[in-house]
Structure formats: structure tokens, C-alpha cells
Design goal:
heterotrimer, A mainly alpha, B mainly alpha, C mainly alpha, A: two-stranded antiparallel sheet, 20 helices, 2 strands, C: mainly alpha, Four Helix Bundle (Hemerythrin (Met), subunit A), disordered C terminus
């Protein structure tokens, strides 16, 4: 069975979804989904072991070798992302049982779980595949599933948010389709590694440039790069809390993976950074995103929306790291990708706890919560400190690498701007701290109890991970450096 | 001849862009989805144009023919058509629910109502 | 020069000229349809234009030798999507607001995108060229080898079901995802579901009723033909599924949704929607257990060709089942919503 690991990674959650559809009963489905998730997680760990032992794994689907058939290809970068996605999805799911009963009508809970599994399937499929068109197919699976999950929020604005995401997401996907079509037109292949071999022959044609541009714009729509982020704040704010945790922690990260794969592995560093002004574009958009989204975040009254804008600005950091175009910069991106997933999982899960008890995430409702729900608020505060980049949290580690990369390239003015971005983060985190700890509880507030353990424990797993990986950086930094080297190695 | 060679592609671009324009500029949610359909269908036309070999025939093996058009884009577009209709169905379902919840499917009215709601929540 | 050869050359040139002429006219029609769609305010007219656009593009696909694609586009674009859109319009209203949303900005975005694409066409290989990169790499393998590897005439089916079978699996999952999404959004929970149904609007048209009663069985039969003929000609599970569903949809339009729900049990249809995906997936599992890779049909039987044939028939069946049930479920869910949506349109709050 060992040689089948790559495909098992995807078909376990995939086949779990239709089985859940037949099972129907929500409690049964919940356990089934959890088991499938744990299995997927175990498979991803085994995959990383295999990759460490044997190097890149190649698996030909249908027994047809690429480029005739579709192949799965797993190297360190994919394996790392697979672990990230499956672990976060599993831990988030532990909190789902409690949180969903409060936010979704009972008859729809099964559908939510199925959509969750399908979304997971889509994301895993994107990460494992080595075929450009297969990326599109699985991207659409994950997108349709996430539109469904978002629309199930209990505010009517969730419907509008989902519709907006559907339109922008489909435009993005169609751009990606155009990009893939043009690449195919110029090379005759869809396999990523075959493309990498064949693109250099035609790299000076305008068609290949156009293909690259459309693909990039499409992916950037999906990963909500400023100013293509318009769908994200409402989608995160009004989706059911569990969907927000899952999407915030994984979906944008997978989009960044696709970006990295195509910039470095398919087109190659040479093409992306020498023929195109990619550095200028990514650095300026990244910086704009960091500053503008942070400022907008300060003025939000809906706390989920506040952190959604914060996500847009954090994506800016990752894009900035890619834009620097050095190994250290890429290491910073990889680190931040992992770390940001931890931060946002902790924060949004804690917010799920707030929704469970208080029923609102308006900033006014937070008054006095610091005393009433100490553990929940502590999780948000520690997550927030991590977002700011305070030492001993993971946020510090990735910002440290980012500033280091900037200084290495002698771009100190940009480093200063990055630090200003952190100051802005202090401003929006402080607003919550101020209300929660220094304002008396509203008069009509009955005293709220601590969030249920089923939500609190998963949230604190992420909080502790934030601290643990902030102190012991050997695993994350090691893996990030290895993947950065790998991506540059492919480019050489 | 050069004009005719790229004529297909240019018209296809015009088609794609009119679909794209409808998606962005129109405010009616159902109309936007129609625009999206046109946009996607036009991309399909682009793919299928790539597959054509002049003098070729449909890719169904037959001893009479030796030149066939490229079957691969056909397969890709079959998949893409299905993806397209799936997206349309979901988008229409959302439009129906939005109509029920907001009483309208016009973008500007919805946004106005959202602003009002946020204002009253303050 | 040999007179015979000259005559056949002349014939070739003439047929080529006609092909170009049809090509130019079809594209011009497509352009007119797309542009008039942008200016029409009547949404019913817009739906019809969208349908016409799909039908025209299906005709264009035939011209481009893509018969399978044409078949699907006609069934889906002109068929299913049109029906779904019309159903939606009965709930959301017929006319759109005249106000455009930042038309100038939109025009700029579109212009920039268009110019980018036109720049992209500059270095494209000439249209229809047989030495373009797309025609000399990978594709020749399918054309030369599929006869030997899989031994069915329709190369598109070979690629779809075997060489790139996993993409098709993904496609089935996309359809399944759409079903889950539509049900999650529009299905009534138990207590909401007791609506009394008005008689179907078409029921009083006797001619329509009789004609469709005559038509429904042949449509279903045709669906089965398309299902099992996909290896030899254009067709396959997807097209068959859509055609089968259209027979049920026709029935529902004439005799009403509730009547249809009595004829076709919803829980069973739901189970089948999931079952199609599972059938497809389990073919892969079986080949894995037999020592092959996932979806490797060669591993199904001793004889590779038999394995390929059986594998393709089974997965096409899975596709057909999921697509047919999915389309039925989606349509019926939409149609049932009409009653509630219209009674609710006065009140503004309606979210669950």
C-alpha cells in the first residue's frame, strides 16, 4: 500500500463525501468525517517520511505515465503543505460538532460536513497533482464546496458574500483556464514538469507571457492579493465559524502553493524574475496590501471581519517574501505560510467560542469578556501577539526572516514599512484588548461562561503550537529552508 | 491569409470580453451569471480552435482517414463545460436565496441594504 | 498534372472555402448574440440569447471536429442551463435595473484584458496548422496508440475515460459538489415542506401533454443508446445523463413537481447521486487491490483490452448515474422553491 500513498491522500476524503451523503444522519456523519480526516492526516505524515527517505514520489494515475496520463508528484514542498492542511482540518473538525449546532440549522449540518470534506479533497488534490489541468478541476471542487460552506452562515450577508466570491472565484478560475490553454497551445503538454522542460524553447514568445500573466492574475484572485481581495472580508466574516477557520488557515495557503509551483517549478526563476518585472509587481502589491488592509482592519466593528482584513495584510507579507526573489525571502514566505495558518486557526477558533456563547462578534459585545471568558480571550490575545510579531511567538520568527531577507538585499526602506505594518497590527489588536479587558461588561449582559471545552481545546492546541514553534524553530525553519532550496534548485 | 489565420482568435477574444463585461458591469445577479456563461463558453471556443487541424476529421478512428483533429482539448473542454454548469447551478441557487432574503437581485440595492443594516448595528 | 488529382484538389479547395465561409458566419453570429446580450434588459430574452449562444457554439464545435463537445454543449448550455435560468427568473423577476455598475471602469478592465490577449495572439501558431506544438506532442500518441492500447474507435472517449480518467473523476465530483451546494441552499427542512402545490401551468395544454407522453420513452431510450454507444461515436455517460434527466424534467414541467416526486422517489435519487461517484471511485480501488495503480483498467482483467473496455463501461455508467440524478435533483429542488419564494417575496427577512 505504501506506493499508493499519494492517491490515498486524495481519495480517502473524496470517497468519504458521497458515503456521508448516503449516511445522512448528522452524528454518524460527524464521526465518519473525523475518522476520514485522521486517516488523511496519517497518510500525509507517512508521505513526508517517504519523501524524506526516497526523494520525490511519482505516481501515474491509470497506469499511464506522464505526459500521456496524469501524474501525482510529491516532493518536500507538497508533503509539507499536505501535513499543514490535513492537521489543521482535523483539529478544526474536533470543534465543529459544538460550533455547528449553534450556527447552522440541524437539517443542514450533514451538507456542511460533506462540503467540508469536498473542500478538503479539492485542496489536497491541488497540492498533490503534477498536471496543470488537474489543478483547475480540483480548484473548482474546493471552490464550489467553499461557496456552499460560506453561504450556510446564519446572516443573510453570508449569501451575498458567497455570491461575490463565486463570481470573483469563477473569473479567477477562467483566467487560470485561459493561462493553461495558452501554455498548452505553445507546448502541447499539460504536465507541469514536461511544461518546465518545453517552456524555455518558446519563452520569448508573447503568447507565453500572456499565459503567465493570466495564470498569475487568476491565482492572485484566489489568494486574495490586494487589490483582488474584495471577496475575502465578507466571506470570512459571515461564513459559519468553522468554515472561516478552515478557509482562512488552508485555502489561501494552497493558492500560494500554486503560485510558488508555477513561478519556480514550471516557469522557472530565470523566466519569472529576469524577463518579467515580477519583483516590482509583487513587492509593491505586497506592501500596499500590508499597509492598506491593516489600516482598514483598525476601523472594523465586526471582529471576524477585522481579522479577515488582517489576513489580507498577512498575505501581503507572504507575497513580499516571494517578490524579494532570494532564498531567504522564500524561506520567510514558507515560514509565514505555516505560521499564519497557526495564528489564524487559533484566533478564529477562539472567535467560534465567542459566537457560541455570546452570539455576536461585534466589538461592543466583547466588553468585559476578558474576565468572563478568560481562556478564550487569552487565545485571541496570544494569537494577536503572534500576528504583531512579538518574540516567543511564531509571528516573530517569520517577520524576523522577512526583515533579514530585506536587509540582505539592502532594501531597508521596505523593512521599515514592514515594521510599520506590525505597528498597525498592534493598533487593531489593542482595540479588542481594550474593550475586552478594560471596559465593564454591558449592563444587559448576563455573565457569559467560558467557551465549551470542545472548542477551547482545539483553539488552545493552536495557541500552544504558536508558542512552541515560536521558541523551537528548528522544525519549521528547517523545512522552510529545505523547500526554498528545492524551489531554487529546480530553477537552476 | 494571415488575417484569416488569426481571425478566429480575435473574434473569440471579442466574445470573451463581452461576456467578461457583462459580469463586471451588470448589476443583476442572474444577468451576471449569464455573462459568466458567455465568458466561459468563449474560452471553450478558444480551446477547441486550438485543437483544429485543417483537413482533419473528428477524432473517431476510421480506416478512411489519417488526419484527425487533436482530441485532448476536446476532453478538457468536456470537463470544463460540466464545471461551468455546476458553477451556474450553484450561482443561481444563491441568487434565489438572495432574492428571498433581500427582496431583490440588484447589486446596488443589496449593498445599500447591507450598509443600512451595518449602520443600525452601530 | 494528372487530371484526377487536379479535380480532387479543386474539390478540396472548394470545400475548404465553404468551411471558411461557415466559420466566418458562425463567429459573426456568435459576436452579434454576445453583444446583443449586453444590451438586452429583458432577462427572458437574455436567457434565450444565452441558449442561442450555446447552440451556435455547439455548431462551431462541430465545424472544428469536436463532436463530443458539441453534443455536450448543446445538451448542457442550451438545455439544462437554460431551464435552470428560466426557473430562477420566475423567482427573481423578469427585468433588470437599467443602471450599470461603474461601466467605465468595467470597460477599462475589459479593454486591458482584451489587449493582453490580442498581444498573446501575435506569436500563436497559425490556426489549423498541423505542425503547431499542440499537434506534435502528446496528441499524436493518443491518435496513434489508443487503437492499440484501448481498442475503441472514439479517441475522445479513450482519453476521457482512461488516459485522463482522473480528470473525469474530478468532473463527477464537481457535479456532486454542485448537488450538495444546491440542496444545502434550497432544500426545505422537514417543517417547511408542507406546501400545497398548484396544478402545473402546462397541464391544461392537452397537445403538449400527449406529445410529451409519447416523447418521454424514446428520450430515455436514446439516453441509454448514448450511454452505451460512447465508445463508437460521440456520446458517453455525461451526455446520456443529461438526456435522461431531461426526460424527467419534461415530465415535471407538465405534471408538476409533486407529481414527479411521487413517481421518482427523492431519497432513492439522492442515494444514486452518491452511488455514481462511488462506482467510479471503486473501479480505481479494485485496480489498486489487483496490484495496478489507481484507475489502471489493465489490472482489472488478465487481458488488458478487456480490462480497458470493462473499466470504461463501468466508469461511464458511474458518470451517467451521477449526472442524471444530479440534474434531476437540482431541477426539482429549484422548482419546488418557486412556491415558497413567491409567497415569501413580500417579506424581506427569510434566511434560515
Amino acid at each position: 500500500m505504501i506506493q499508493h500513498l499519494p492517491i490515498l491522500q486524495v481519495i480517502i476524503p473524496l470517497l468519504a463525501a458521497p458515503i456521508c451523503f448516503i449516511l445522512k444522519e448528522a452524528r454518524l456523519v460527524r464521526w465518519f468525517v473525523l475518522i476520514a480526516n485522521v486517516m488523511a492526516f496519517v497518510v500525509s505524515i507517512m508521505l513526508l517520511q517517504q519523501v524524506n527517505l526516497n526523494g520525490t514520489l511519482v505516481y501515474s494515475l491509470g497506469g499511464w505515465d506522464a505526459p500521456v496520463g496524469i501524474e501525482y508528484r510529491i516532493d518536500k514542498l507538497n508533503a509539507y503543505l499536505l501535513i499543514l492542511v490535513t492537521s489543521i482540518s482535523t483539529i478544526t473538525l474536533m470543534a465543529a460538532g459544538k460550533s455547528l449546532t449553534k450556527e447552522i440549522s440541524e437539517s443542514k449540518i450533514t451538507y456542511f460536513y460533506i462540503a467540508y470534506m469536498l473542500c478538503l479533497t479539492g485542496l489536497l488534490g491541488i497540492v498533490t497533482t503534477g498536471d496543470a489541468f488537474n489543478v483547475f478541476v480540483f480548484l473548482e471542487i474546493s471552490s464550489l464546496a467553499s461557496y456552499t460552506m460560506i453561504a450556510m452562515g446564519n446572516d443573510r450577508r453570508s449569501l451575498w458574500a458567497s455570491y461575490q466570491y463565486l463570481i470573483m472565484g469563477t473569473i479567477g478560475a477562467t483566467f487560470i483556464l485561459i493561462g493553461i490553454g495558452l501554455m498548452y497551445m505553445m507546448t502541447g503538454t499539460l504536465n507541469m514538469y514536461d511544461l518546465a522542460e518545453r517552456l524555455p524553447e518558446v519563452e520569448h514568445t508573447k503568447t507565453v507571457f500572456t499565459a503567465f500573466a493570466f495564470f498569475l492574475v487568476g491565482v492572485c484572485l484566489k489568494l486574495a492579493l490586494f487589490p483582488l481581495h474584495l471577496w475575502l472580508p465578507n466571506a470570512y466574516a459571515y461564513a459559519p465559524s468553522i468554515a472561516t477557520v478552515f478557509l482562512a488557515a488552508t485555502a489561501t495557503k494552497v493558492a500560494i502553493y500554486v503560485l510558488l509551483r508555477f513561478i519556480f517549478s514550471v516557469y522557472g526563476f530565470e523566466f519569472s524574475f529576469s524577463h518579467l518585472p515580477l519583483t516590482e509587481i509583487l513587492v509593491s502589491l505586497g506592501l500596499l496590501g500590508i499597509i492598506a488592509a491593516s489600516i482598514v482592519a483598525i476601523y472594523q466593528t465586526n471582529v471576524k471581519r477585522l481579522f479577515a482584513y488582517s489576513s489580507v495584510s498577512q498575505i501581503g507579507y507572504m507575497i513580499l517574501g516571494i517578490g524579494i526573489g532570494t532564498k531567504t525571502g522564500l524561506t520567510a514566505t514558507m515560514l509565514h505560510l505555516f505560521n499564519h495558518a497557526l495564528m489564524k486557526s487559533a484566533i478564529f477558533l477562539a472567535l467560534a467560542g465567542v459566537v457560541y456563547r455570546v452570539g455576536s462578534v461585534n466589538i461592543k459585545a466583547f466588553a468585559g469578556l476578558g474576565r468572563q471568558m478568560p481562556w478564550t480571550m487569552a487565545a485571541i490575545v496570544i494569537g494577536g501577539l503572534s500576528l504583531i510579531g512579538v518574540p516567543l511567538t511564531v509571528g516573530f520568527v517569520s517577520k524576523w526572516y522577512l526583515v533579514l531577507a530585506l536587509l540582505e538585499s539592502n532594501w531597508w526602506p521596505i523593512a521599515v514599512l514592514v515594521l510599520i505594518g506590525s505597528l498597525l497590527a498592534i493598533a487593531y489588536i489593542w482595540r479588542i484588548v481594550e474593550v475586552a479587558y478594560f471596559k465593564p461588561a454591558l449592563q444587559n449582559n448576563q455573565s457569559y461562561k467560558e467557551a465549551p471545552l470542545a472548542i477551547l481545546i482545539p483553539a488552545w492546541i493552536f495557541v500552544l503550537a504558536n508558542i512552541y514553534f515560536g521558541i523551537d524553530t528548528s522544525f519549521t525553519a528547517g523545512v522552510s529552508e529545505a523547500t526554498a532550496e528545492l524551489l531554487f534548485g529546480v530553477a537552476e | 491569409m494571415n488575417f484569416l489565420e488569426q481571425y478566429n482568435y480575435w473574434i473569440v477574444i471579442l466574445l470573451m470580453m463581452s461576456g467578461f463585461y457583462i459580469v463586471i458591469a451588470h448589476g443583476n445577479l442572474v444577468k451576471k451569471l449569464m455573462g459568466l456563461t458567455i465568458f466561459q463558453t468563449s474560452v471553450f471556443i478558444l480551446y477547441i480552435s486550438v485543437s483544429k487541424v485543417i483537413g482533419g476529421t473528428a477524432p473517431i478512428l476510421n480506416d478512411q482517414y489519417t488526419v484527425y483533429s487533436n482530441p485532448l482539448p476536446h476532453v478538457l473542454i468536456l470537463t470544463a463545460i460540466v464545471v461551468g454548469v455546476a458553477t451556474t447551478a450553484l450561482g443561481l441557487a444563491l441568487a434565489v436565496r438572495i432574492k428571498e432574503a433581500y427582496g431583490t437581485v440588484e447589486e446596488d440595492v443589496i449593498q445599500e441594504k447591507d450598509l443600512q443594516q451595518e449602520g443600525s448595528a452601530e | 498534372m494528372d487530371a484526377n488529382l487536379a479535380r480532387s484538389n479543386q474539390k478540396k479547395i472548394r470545400s475548404r472555402a465553404i468551411e471558411i465561409l461557415i466559420n466566418v458566419i458562425l463567429l459573426a453570429f456568435l459576436a452579434i448574440t454576445a453583444l446583443s446580450l449586453a444590451f438586452t434588459k429583458d432577462l427572458f430574452a437574455s436567457v434565450m440569447l444565452t441558449g442561442i449562444y450555446s447552440l451556435l457554439s455547439a455548431a462551431f464545435f462541430v465545424l472544428m471536429d469536436a463532436v463530443d463537445v458539441a453534443f455536450t454543449e448543446a445538451a448542457v448550455g442550451a438545455g439544462i442551463s437554460t431551464i435552470l435560468m428560466v426557473t430562477t427568473l420566475t423567482m427573481t423577476g423578469r427585468y433588470e435595473n437599467r443602471k450599470l455598475h461603474h461601466p467605465l471602469i468595467a470597460l477599462c478592465v475589459v479593454a486591458v484584458t482584451g489587449v493582453m490577449l490580442i498581444i498573446g495572439t501575435m506569436d500563436m501558431p497559425a490556426f489549423g496548422s498541423d505542425v503547431a506544438p499542440a499537434q506534435v506532442h502528446v496528441a499524436p500518441y493518443y491518435i496513434m496508440q489508443s487503437g492499440e492500447d484501448i481498442d475503441i474507435p472514439n479517441i475522445v472517449t479513450s482519453v476521457l475515460a482512461s488516459y485522463r480518467g482522473f480528470d473525469t473523476f474530478g468532473e463527477v465530483v464537481v457535479v456532486f459538489t454542485a448537488v450538495v451546494g444546491v440542496l444545502a441552499l434550497l432544500e426545505f427542512s422537514r417543517k417547511e415542506s408542507d406546501i400545497t402545490e398548484k396544478p402545473a401551468p402546462m397541464f391544461q395544454h392537452k397537445i403538449l401533454r400527449i406529445v410529451s407522453k409519447i416523447l418521454i420513452p424514446p428520450i430515455m431510450l436514446f439516453a441509454l443508446y448514448v450511454q452505451f454507444h460512447g465508445e463508437y461515436g460521440p456520446g458517453g455517460g455525461f451526455q446520456a445523463g443529461v438526456i435522461f434527466a431531461s426526460a424527467i424534467i419534461l415530465y415535471a414541467m407538465l405534471f408538476g413537481v409533486e407529481q414527479t416526486r411521487k413517481a421518482v422517489s427523492m431519497p432513492v435519487v439522492k442515494v444514486f447521486a452518491a452511488l455514481g461517484v462511488l462506482i467510479y471511485g471503486s473501479v480505481g480501488i479494485v485496480s489498486m487491490l489487483n496490484g495496478g495503480n489507481y484507475l489502471d483498467y489493465n489490472a482489472l482483467f488478465e487481458n488488458d483490452i478487456t480490462g480497458q473496455h470493462v473499466g470504461i463501461i463501468i466508469i461511464e455508467l458511474g458518470v451517467g448515474i451521477t449526472v442524471a440524478t444530479a440534474m434531476i435533483l437540482i431541477f426539482l429542488t429549484f422548482a419546488r422553491r418557486i412556491g415558497k419564494s413567491n409567497s415569501n417575496s413580500g417579506t424581506k427577512e427569510g434566511t434560515a
